[in-house]
Task: structure prediction
Amino acid sequence: MNLKRIPLLVGMLSAMSVLSSPVWAAASCEPANLASKYPSLVGKTIKIGVDPQTPPYVMRDAKSFENLVGIDADMARSVFDCAGVKYEFFPGAWAGLVPATLAGQIDVLWDNLYYNPERGKKLDFVIFMEAGTGAMTQAGNPKKITSQQGMCGATAAVTLGGFEESIVKEADAACKAEGKPGVQMMSFQDVAAGIRLIDNQRADIMMWDAGLIDTLVADHPQKYSRAFMTLSGIQIGPGVRKGDDDLRKAIQDGIEVLQASGGQAEIFRKYNVDPASQVPVVLKNEK
Result:
């Protein structure tokens, strides 16, 4: 081998390695390039729909009532700062956020939004994590409900139209098939209303995202216990209207940057959520 060619070959290999590296291909924060990267967002203030009563995803800052914090609030700030676009939060009851997004009253619903094919026909989702479902009961678990199969004869509170309805219906059918009392289902509009059903003992369990349930139990152990948790595998991410391609792309690029830098995992740890629930960012929608 011609020894004089070794430095040249090393240099060529190094260049090829850089060009094929995922870091080279990854998105980066370029707020000064908003006009060229996401032209339809120039001069626009993105309206972010949230329910401030959904810890650890979005909640009021204990030190400043007007300030919203949590996994989704922190991630939204990081993503839109990365893109260089203005934004503001629009708080409301969770049940009304999907209709508000579809009606154009808000631009993105970014608050513990579960993907399903029906929603995917209406909104484009940018998935970044998977969910588990938790069941919260009164402190001490007075009815000793420790599993989905142990819900026979209980009253379960679920969000109106939420994924948890399917869990309760499945449990109800299984109980009746075994000749046991079924599961009564009650619906609530927002998290605060669901919590009141537990506080007033109108419901035996309240079913919601496991992160929220574990936060409530940790903050109020004298009032609540976790009855059980089931891994749903449901994908979570912000939803935007069909056709808002620049907004969707800005969100996807920003989350990619957060994941590559370890920022998403850091935000998860900040709010006591296992970083293992993070999944590589991906677009999900239905035609």
